[in-house]
């Protein structure tokens, strides 16, 4: 990595989180890093955007009183030098599976960058939680060793290697560090979805049951998926695009023709 590389660093846990500090310290050794991150925790806010946000100067850069998407727009369009790369993270908690891509503020920051045609890396760390909330776990900088190591490596090499010629952003998920560097697996997001709801009087409790089956001996996700890789102690790197296109749909075209006939529209489709 060379000192002329410009990186915009953001997250969704807030500018005061351990995860963004360790990434900043690692990336700042070899690149010009501008931090534009939420002033407070904005987890699971997706790509929510604001019309106006207050900005405060911070020792790391800028604290934005808004969402990760706000931070990326403000950082790219106004606050910092236009970067070569956007890095989002490191999130305290994994972002695995297709269903989290639009929900995660960490991933959404990378998606926002993609619409600016800026390559991005979203990095999250899986933290096993048996009882109680994730926020109750005291994470230290050492826990993020795999996250800082692989993110720094990708920031240094992915641009020149042409990775972003075929991917808009990389969704990176790492296991919590246990001393030995974890290997990398190139993956696809798992398709599993196990949200559940239960009514209790005037309240409906929503529960994401997918995290109940992360045991590598019993996890049902197939080989090649992000969830299986992380559950088995590997770093998952999923190359993704934004927006997410589908194949040309001839059946839908035929249905459009039928609609035109039903309402009396003549002539070819635009």
UniProtKB/TrEMBL annotation:
Record keyword Lipoprotein present: no
Gene3D superfamilies hit by this protein: Survival protein SurE-like phosphatase/nucleotidase (3.40.1210.10)
SUPFAM superfamilies noted in UniProt: SurE-like
Cofactor binding summary note: Binds 1 divalent metal cation per subunit.
MF GO annotations: 5'-nucleotidase activity; metal ion binding; nucleotide binding
List of residues binding a divalent metal cation: 12-13, 43, 91
Domain Survival protein SurE-like phosphatase/nucleotidase intervals: 7-193
Highest taxon listed in the record's lineage: Archaea
Keyword flag Cytoplasm: yes
Requisite cofactors: a divalent metal cation
GO CC terms in record: cytoplasm
Subcellular locations according to the entry: Cytoplasm
Keyword set, alphabetical order: Cytoplasm, Hydrolase, Metal-binding, Nucleotide-binding
TM segment ranges: none
Family: Belongs to the SurE nucleotidase family.
NCBIfam families assigned: surE
Function: Nucleotidase that shows phosphatase activity on nucleoside 5'-monophosphates.
Protein name: 5'-nucleotidase SurE
Taxonomic source organism: Salinadaptatus halalkaliphilus
Organism lineage: Archaea, Methanobacteriati, Methanobacteriota, Stenosarchaea group, Halobacteria
Gene this protein is translated from: surE
